[in-house]
């Protein structure tokens, strides 16, 4: 407290992940894709519903991965963007009668703007301060959604019921299955977009900022622009996920978009491997299925079991699923040679 | 050509065969939907065992214990109850997931007593579209009594609005010049009560001089109380959940504000609210009840409560009889068992709803004398009566008659 | 005018709660340079332990001291067992660890002591303080203890060898090791102290908000906010931050028309973010100079 200044050689909050390692190899990608396309044909509607939620949360975790793993900005506020996207879709579908597919790009654009705007004051914050700011945003969102002023649109505390669409052109599939394939198509499109974004010049700018913001700025990277851009893109994708979520669950309410959701998405990112885009789906699987497993083990202690399982995961693989993939790759390499 | 003797025998035998065939067919008139068989009935349930509303998880545990008791005593019409209960953490999307799991994966007959307005709002459309009974929902929101739009959804406890109306009636009669300050939780629960109060006051809604809302994320509501005292109100209505109700009682005593204090039924539990808040601070508080309080010694010899206490001792010893939620779970479970019994061998979902809508003057062990469960095709609100009570010493003193919360009364 | 002063006083009273928690938050930040999300739950658990001790017949002050000791030991144990193995892992993984700890403690507390609220005694009594209807003797006592803690911490960090060693280990671990400081044990010590301070906060807060497993959830957010506002490196700032947050929240709720009441928390947090944008290290924190 006597020192006037504190001089810190700060380790970056987010560790560097080489660009090449941010995606899957071609072979594994194809296998994943095949699984995602074929499995729903053989399972019950309820499982298809769970798989749809898997993709949706996977999208949200992917968005967080771009923001944190890509540009190094720590966010605990994704639930706010998810909620805004969800409500946008719900309001457009129920009050304006818009087609569900059209609501998604609108949700995405609105959330992009929202995220971009939020990124502005967030520019001067980093690390724990940024975490707090995003945390504040996430806590504020349910209360904003409950505001009496917005009630005619949002339904206030009661929320809105959303109608699930039928398969178009009279295709012989259930609503659940149609929604799943629709979501899958959107997810794949966004995934490809994200991969390309990170490989592009903007992506390199993100990663430069993540690894060393001062050096990046000294090298001529427009730090302000790219940081807010990262926030915007991440928010936009989360908004699309939110819209899909609203359609899948058929209901939106302020209580659905609390800080708990933001924390879950954060955990999903860590478990999947920060900065490793394919890990998003692993992280998503963790946050959807492990609580169910924990409940199955002990209803009274489900939270504790979940915590213990989470600890196990981070002890064994502190770098998340990416670590598992790297190890698997090395073993495959040895097998090929040996 | 058969002889007369042979003809008679033939006729007689044919008659016997025909008779046994038809009566055999009549005996085999057991009808089942998914979830019911000759030996078991699967009942689904969703409760917040974790998360902000985890205090209500004991309701699910009580019901589980109650069904164990029923099974130990032979089941319902010879069938054992298989109670499948899941945690939704008070989150609507999770509630939807669990509801779908119950219906599509566990294949239950009915979803019984799911808790929480947001969760129930989320699953209402789904359950109705799947024609699965959403029976005796554990929330007091008024919208569960809508058989025309949602024929598969039925409430159980008196709705918050009807309770609000009862307080309004009481105030109009006993204290028509009251200046009312209301502290309410900023959600469905709080807003519903407020609406009931306003509707009940009707033209005299201006008796409410201050309305103050609070969020459950606030650690304490003390400063709201301070603000309300400054309005000069002489009547204070606490539309709060247990923790905040206790804080309010305590703060009122601390700042020495002594208005007429009304506490809503949800927070009238002696064990969970008044005792921690301090009996000396709770004298004279008013509320309304439809069930007996385990802390009230006047029911010690009541036959219904004796059965309840015996049940607790044998099947749920960790259950706290002072906790209103435990009493609640018992009453709701007993009502379900009654409906299932009334179904006999016709265990289709449609029949379950039909029987649930045909309850006449049914009195579970734990309801106050005078409060009866009645339902009909147009009345999906089983309990509608409450009795006012005043806290004196260490227990509630009931007074007046049971009042119905109907608007046109 | 009277309403204004009333709200300020009431804000100070609630602010005392936030200030208490903020001190524990700053303590852990001094040790590990990060915020521990499970801080509130650890404080809650300690308070339950003290409650249980009193149920078993131990008088208040005996239980208080015992709980302090148990919390201190517990904090060190948690750090050694759960977080030392994660020392080399990325920070975000550690944060996930805090969240896991939160879930475990909350769930276990709920199982052992269930979710109904429990009354918690105060050594200060609950009468109006100096005749004021707004601050009770307990709340005055809370403010007093917080200030005492603050002074104690100030002396600890400024004038004792261990305090200095801890500060060194947290801000420049490499250099600290070079001069012979066992940085690993400094971290453990920091955890222990933070747990102890947290337990004091819990035992002071419980009489006001009533003891139950979810009691610290809201308080922790405010504690963070207060600590950040005041400056994460300054215990003095944390306490001032706590009072400021309490006051501001009350004023916002009373004077901002319409939404003021419903948006108290978001408005308070927005204020803090604004302050941070202007003064990134908080009101009383030391400005941080980052090197490439």
Mean pLDDT of chain C: 85
Structural class based on helices, strands and sheet pairing of chain A: mainly alpha
Instruction: Report the largest inter-chain contact.
Output: A-C, 61 and 59 residues
* Strands ordered across the widest β-sheet of chain A: 2-3
Keywords:
heterotrimer, B: 409 residues, Rossmann fold, 4-stranded parallel β-sheet, 12 helices, 41% helix, C: mainly alpha, ABC transporter involved in vitamin B12 uptake, BtuC, two-stranded antiparallel sheet, 73% helix, 3% strand
Short description:
Chain A has 338 residues and is mainly alpha-helical. Chain A has 14 helices and three strands. Chain A has helices spanning 26-38, 45-71, 78-95, 100-122, 127-146, 151-154, 175-199, 201-211, 213-218, 223-249, 259-272, 279-297, 302-316, 321-337, and strands at residues 6-8, 160-161, 251-252.
What is the topology?
The complex is a heterotrimer of chains A (338), B (409) and C (292).
Chain A: E1 6-8, H1 26-38, H2 45-71, H3 78-95, H4 100-122, H5 127-146, H6 151-154, E2 160-161, H7 175-199, H8 201-211, H9 213-218, H10 223-249, E3 251-252, H11 259-272, H12 279-297, H13 302-316, H14 321-337
Antiparallel strand pairs in A: 2-3
Helix pairs in contact in A: 2-7, 2-8, 2-10, 2-11, 2-12, 3-4, 3-5, 3-10, 4-10, 7-8, 7-10, 8-10, 11-12, 12-13
Chain B: H1 4-27, E1 31-32, E2 40-47, H2 57-72, E3 80-87, H3 92-106, E4 110-112, H4 117-130, E5 134-135, H5 160-174, E6 180-185, H6 188-201, E7 208-214, H7 222-229, E8 235-239, H8 242-254, E9 260-263, H9 270-277, E10 286-289, H10 303-315, H11 324-343, E11 346-347, H12 349-356, E12 385-392, E13 395-404
Parallel strand pairs in B: 1-11, 2-3, 2-4, 4-5, 6-7, 6-8, 8-9
Antiparallel strand pairs in B: 10-12, 12-13
Helix pairs in contact in B: 2-11, 3-4, 5-6, 8-9, 11-12
Chain C: H1 2-32, H2 39-55, H3 60-83, H4 91-113, E1 128-129, E2 132-136, H5 137-159, H6 161-171, H7 173-178, H8 183-209, H9 216-230, H10 235-255, H11 264-278, E3 288-290
Structural features, described:
The complex is a heterotrimer of chains A (338), B (409) and C (292). By secondary structure, chain A is mostly helical. Chain A has a two-stranded antiparallel ribbon. Chain A is globular and about 55 Å long. Chain B folds into 2 domains: 199 residues, Response regulator (Rossmann fold, 3-Layer(aba) Sandwich); 145 residues, Rossmann fold, CATH 3.40.50.2300. In chain B, the strands form 4 sheets. In chain B, strands 3-2-4-5 form a 4-stranded parallel beta sheet. A 4-stranded parallel beta sheet of chain B has the order 7-6-8-9, sandwiched between helices. A 3-stranded antiparallel beta sheet of chain B has the order 10-12-13, covered by helices on one side. In chain B, strand 6, helix 6 and strand 7 form a beta-alpha-beta unit. In chain B, helix 2 packs across helix 11 and helix 5 runs parallel beside helix 6. By secondary structure, chain C is mainly alpha-helical. Chain C has a single domain, classed as ABC transporter involved in vitamin B12 uptake, BtuC, CATH 1.10.3470. Chains in contact: A-B, A-C, B-C. The interface between A and C is large, with 61 and 59 residues. Strand 1 of chain A pairs parallel with strand 3 of chain C, so a sheet runs across the interface.
């Amino acid at each position: 407290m006597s020192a006037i200044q504190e001089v810190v050689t700060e380790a970056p909050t987010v560790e560097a992940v080489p660009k090449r390692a941010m995606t899957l190899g071609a072979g594994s990608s194809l296998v994943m894709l095949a699984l995602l396309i074929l499995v729903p044909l053989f399972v019950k509607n309820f499982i298809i519903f769970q798989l749809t939620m898997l993709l949706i949360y996977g999208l949200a975790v992917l968005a967080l991965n771009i923001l944190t793993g890509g540009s190094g900005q720590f966010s605990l506020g994704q639930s706010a963007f998810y909620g805004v996207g969800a409500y946008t879709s719900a309001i457009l579908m129920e009050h304006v009668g818009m087609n569900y597919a059209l609501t998604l790009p609108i949700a995405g654009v609105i959330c992009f703007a929202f995220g971009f705007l939020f990124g502005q004051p967030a520019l001067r914050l980093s690390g724990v301060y940024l975490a707090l700011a995003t945390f504040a945003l996430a806590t504020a969102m349910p209360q904003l959604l409950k505001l009496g002023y917005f009630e005619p649109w949002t339904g206030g505390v009661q929320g809105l019921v959303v109608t699930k669409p039928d398969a178009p052109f009279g295709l012989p599939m259930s609503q659940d299955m149609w929604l799943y394939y629709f979501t899958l198509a959107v997810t794949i499109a966004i995934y490809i977009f994200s991969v390309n974004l990170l490989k592009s010049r903007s992506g390199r700018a993100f990663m430069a900022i993540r690894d060393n913001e001062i050096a990046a700025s000294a090298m001529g990277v427009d730090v302000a622009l790219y940081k807010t851009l990262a926030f915007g893109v991440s928010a936009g994708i989360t908004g699309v996920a939110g819209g899909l979520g609203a359609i899948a669950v058929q209901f939106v309410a302020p209580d659905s978009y609390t800080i708990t959701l933001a924390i879950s998405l954060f955990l999903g990112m860590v478990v999947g491997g920060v900065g490793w885009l394919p890990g998003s789906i692993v992280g998503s699987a963790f946050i959807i299925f492990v609580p169910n497993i924990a409940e199955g083990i002990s209803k009274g202690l489900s939270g504790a079991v979940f915590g213990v399982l989470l600890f196990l995961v981070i002890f064994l693989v502190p770098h998340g699923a990416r670590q598992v993939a790297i190890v698997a790759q090395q073993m495959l390499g040895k097998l090929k040679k040996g | 050509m058969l002889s007369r003797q042979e003809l008679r025998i033939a006729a007689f035998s044919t008659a016997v065969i025909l008779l046994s065939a038809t009566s055999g067919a009549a005996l085999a008139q057991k009808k089942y939907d998914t979830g019911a068989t000759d030996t078991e009935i699967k009942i689904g349930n969703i409760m917040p065992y974790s998360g902000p509303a985890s205090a209500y998880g004991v309701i699910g545990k009580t019901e589980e214990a109650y069904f164990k008791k029923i099974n130990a005593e032979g089941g319902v019409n010879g069938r054992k109850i298989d109670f499948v209960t899941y945690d939704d953490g008070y989150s609507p999307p999770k509630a939807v997931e669990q509801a779908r799991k119950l219906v599509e994966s566990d294949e239950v007959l009915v979803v019984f007593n799911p808790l929480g307005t947001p969760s129930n709002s989320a699953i209402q459309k789904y359950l109705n579209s799947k024609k699965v009974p959403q029976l005796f929902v554990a929330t007091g929101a008024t919208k569960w009594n809508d058989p025309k739009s949602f024929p598969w959804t039925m409430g159980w406890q008196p709705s918050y609005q009807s309770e609000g109306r009862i307080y309004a009636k009481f105030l109009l009669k006993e204290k028509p010049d009251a200046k009312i300050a209301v502290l309410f939780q900023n959600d469905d629960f709080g807003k519903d009560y407020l609406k009931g109060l306003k509707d009940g006051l009707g033209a005299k809604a201006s008796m409410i001089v201050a309305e103050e809302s609070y969020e459950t994320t606030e650690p304490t509501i003390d400063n709201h109380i301070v603000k309300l005292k400054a309005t000069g109100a002489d009547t204070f209505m606490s539309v709060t959940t247990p923790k905040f109700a206790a804080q309010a009682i305590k703060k009122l005593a601390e700042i020495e504000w002594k208005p007429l204090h009304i506490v809503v039924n949800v927070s009238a539990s002696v064990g969970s609210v008044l005792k921690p808040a301090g009996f000396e601070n709770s004298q004279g508080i008013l509320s309304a009840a439809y069930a007996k309080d385990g802390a009230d010694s006047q029911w010690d010899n009541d036959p219904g409560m004796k059965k309840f206490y015996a049940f607790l001792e044998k099947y749920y010893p960790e259950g706290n009889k002072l906790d209103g939620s435990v009493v609640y779970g018992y009453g709701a479970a007993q009502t379900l068992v009654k409906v299932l019994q009334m179904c006999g061998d016709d265990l289709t979902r449609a029949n379950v709803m039909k029987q649930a809508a045909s309850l006449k003057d049914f009195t579970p062990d734990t309801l106050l004398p005078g409060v009866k469960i009645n339902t009909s095709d147009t009345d999906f609100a089983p309990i509608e009566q409450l009795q006012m009570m005043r806290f004196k010493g260490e227990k509630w003193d009931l007074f007046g008659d049971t009042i119905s919360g109907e608007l046109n009364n | 005018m009277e309403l204004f002063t009333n709200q300020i006083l009431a804000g100070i009273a609630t602010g005392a709660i936030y200030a208490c928690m903020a001190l524990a938050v700053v303590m852990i930040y001094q040790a590990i340079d990060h915020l521990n999300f499970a801080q509130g739950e650890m404080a809650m658990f300690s308070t339950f332990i003290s409650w249980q001790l009193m149920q078993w017949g131990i008088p208040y002050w005996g239980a208080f001291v015992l709980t302090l000791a148990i919390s201190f030991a517990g904090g060190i144990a948690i750090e050694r067992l759960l977080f030392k193995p994660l020392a080399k892992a990325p920070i975000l993984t550690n944060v996930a660890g805090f969240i896991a700890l939160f879930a475990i403690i909350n769930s276990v507390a709920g199982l052992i002591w269930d979710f109904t609220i429990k009354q918690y005694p105060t050594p200060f009594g609950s009468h109006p303080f100096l005749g004021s209807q707004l601050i009770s003797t307990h709340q005055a006592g809370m403010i007093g203890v917080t200030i005492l803690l603050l002074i104690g911490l100030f002396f600890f960090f400024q004038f004792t060898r261990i305090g200095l060693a801890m500060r060194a280990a947290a801000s420049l671990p490499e250099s600290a090791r070079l001069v012979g400081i066992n940085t690993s044990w400094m971290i453990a010590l920091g955890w222990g102290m933070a747990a102890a301070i947290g337990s004091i906060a819990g035992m002071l807060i419980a009489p006001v908000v009533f003891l139950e497993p979810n009691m610290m959830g809201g308080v922790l957010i405010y504690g963070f906010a207060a600590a950040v506002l005041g400056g994460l490196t300054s215990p003095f700032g944390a306490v001032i931050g706590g009072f400021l947050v309490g006051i501001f929240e009350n004023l916002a709720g009373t004077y901002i028309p319409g939404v003021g009441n419903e948006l108290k928390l978001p408005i308070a947090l927005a204020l803090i973010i604004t302050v941070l944008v202007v003064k990134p290290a908080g009101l009383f924190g030391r400005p941080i100079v980052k090197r490439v």
